[in-house]
TrEMBL record:
Any Pfam family matching the protein: bpMoxR
Coiled-coil stretches: 446-476
Organism: Oceanisphaera arctica
Domain AAA+ ATPase: 34-175
Keyword Cell inner membrane attached: no
Alphabetized UniProt keyword annotations: Coiled coil
Keyword flag Disulfide bond: no
Highest taxon, organism lineage: Bacteria
InterPro entries recorded: AAA+_ATPase, ClpA/B, MoxR, P-loop_NTPase, RavA-like_AAA_lid, RavA_ATPases
GO molecular function, one term: ATP binding
Annotated protein name in UniProt: ATPase
Length: 484
């Protein structure tokens, strides 16, 4: 059985001596582990073929195939020449030994130069792992193909081929910071020892084990959020591609000895979902903001929720004030909160914001002042005769509510508090020993790992504050007057 330490050793072998190629190296190995294919897009001389040659040394099956396509390439270059002896017997067979149908790992350069004579057989071989040789359809031992191109496909007939490459990476020449290291590089690639190499049984065990892993609830919510983001960005992703992405997420988690595919496995998503290279940065920025932030419990969402409960409390605790209509009749509110006056049919007076000027008093004590009348939008001349007859309360009393209303409010608050407490418990488990777990993570780059840890710590602090607000709101609702 393949263990995490073994995969880590293979990653180190794949990366040794390659400058700024850590990510495509991990993607190449992940493609082989999951039975998918990798497309490297970029100029010549950027170690694309070197990566494929190294990958084939990581597996027991040493059959390797490499070919550069041109617009004039013929099927014989990929699938083998026709058998003369078979033709003499009126059979159309190819001699496939040493060609793509019998390779375990393959590198195809300038993949999008494939013409229609090659395309159909290539699509079937990549996707179904089958090859039509004469009248027979045969299974092939292909583990993974790494393809390279200087440009994106041009023409609708190549879109299906482009879609066969679940993982995509744009390779660029090394940066200035690594240029001196490139000039002084003196490193010969050392193949891994035989005991480290992956057998077909190892690959089958990985894929079967990964298939059994569940998806974390937080991961499912993040994928829903990502799908919405992709729609906003007008990036189309097929249902088949989503299913393949889930398989990759599970393989990533399984090799890292995780019990479920979770948020940290989403490091690979930007490399699976872009159609045009300029879309990658938008996807990568989105991932950096959300890799550790469960969209169902984001601080922004929970803050909005708590703010809405604060508004409900203010409405329920709103004090009752005297109300008059335009003719000076006292205004009352019915059971539905609608204005009812002693003179039916009269419209109650409202201020510029549309609020009722007054509501019915409960504890009259002293007269309203002229300034208060003006502040509430009233007409001083109209209300002057009434100032002495209408009194103000010394302490405004809130409305009394039916017991069922308060119980409903408290029940809903308890549900929100319980949900948030449960999530904070999960978050605490994630943060326990997180720095060491991230340091030993097989796939995460250090920059992304640091970003994830900061997000989780900030999220925990902000959600703790919102839980305290919810608990205070519950106490405040409990203190509201109840009828009877």
């Amino acid at each position: 059985m393949v263990v995490k330490s073994r995969i880590a050793a293979l990653i180190n072998h794949l990366q040794q001596g390659l400058l700024e190629r850590d990510t495509p190296a991990r993607l190449a190995l992940l493609a082989a582990l999951s039975g998918e294919h990798l497309l490297l897009l970029g100029p010549p001389g950027t170690a694309k073929s070197e990566l494929a040659r190294r990958l084939h040394t990581l597996v027991d099956d040493s059959r390797y195939f490499e070919r550069l396509l041109t617009r004039f390439s013929v099927p014989e270059e990929l699938f083998g020449p026709l058998s003369i002896k078979a033709l003499e017997q009126d059979r159309y067979l190819r001699q496939t030994k040493g060609y793509l149908p019998e390779a375990a790992i393959a590198f195809i350069d300038e993949i999008f130069k494939a013409n229609s004579a090659i395309l159909n057989s290539l699509l079937t071989l990549l996707n179904e792992r089958q090859f039509d040789n004469g009248s027979e359809r045969l299974g092939v031992p292909l583990i993974s193909v790494i393809a390279a191109s200087n440009e994106l496909p041009d023409g609708a007939e190549l879109n299906a081929l482009y879609d066969r490459f679940l993982l995509r990476f744009q390779v660029a020449p090394i940066q200035d910071d690594s240029f001196t290291a490139l000039l002084t590089l003196n490193h010969d690639y050392q193949e891994p020892p035989t005991e480290l190499r992956l057998s077909n049984d190892d690959l089958t065990a990985i894929r079967d084990g990964a298939e059994q892993l569940p998806l974390a609830d937080a991961l499912i919510r993040l994928l829903h959020s990502l799908r919405t983001f992709l729609a906003e960005q007008e990036i189309s992703v097929s249902d088949r591609r989503w299913r393949k992405v889930v398989k990759l997420l599970k393989v990533s988690a399984f090799c890292n000895n995780e019990p479920e595919a979770g948020l940290f496995d989403t490091w690979l998503l930007p490399h699976c979902l872009w159609q045009q290279p300029d879309q990658f940065e938008r996807l990568n920025d989105w991932l950096h903001r959300h890799i550790a932030a469960d969209p169902g419990f984001s601080p922004e969402l929970i803050t909005e929720l708590v703010d809405s409960w604060q508004q409900r409390l203010e409405q329920d605790a709103d004090p009752v004030l005297p109300a008059l209509n335009e003719q000076g009749y006292q205004l009352y509110l019915d059971e539905q909160g609608q204005p009812v006056t002693e003179a039916r049919g009269q419209r109650p007076r409202r201020n510029a914001s549309g609020d009722l000027l007054y509501r019915q008093p409960r504890l009259p004590d002293a007269s309203f002042t002229a300034d208060e009348i003006r502040n509430l939008g009233g007409n001083l001349d109209q209300y002057q005769p009434l100032l002495e007859s209408y009194q103000r309360p010394t302490a405004l009393q809130p409305k009394a509510w039916p017991a069922a209303h308060i119980a409903s409010r408290l029940r809903q608050l308890d549900e929100r508090i319980d949900e948030l407490t449960h999530y904070l418990g999960w978050l605490g488990q994630q943060l326990h020993g997180l720095a060491e777990r991230l340091r030993q993570h097989l796939w995460l780059e250090q920059e992304l790992a640091t970003q994830a840890q900061r997000q989780l710590e900030r999220q925990q602090q902000q959600l703790d504050q919102q839980r305290e607000r919810l608990q205070q709101l519950r106490r405040d609702f409990s203190a509201l007057p109840v009828e009877g």
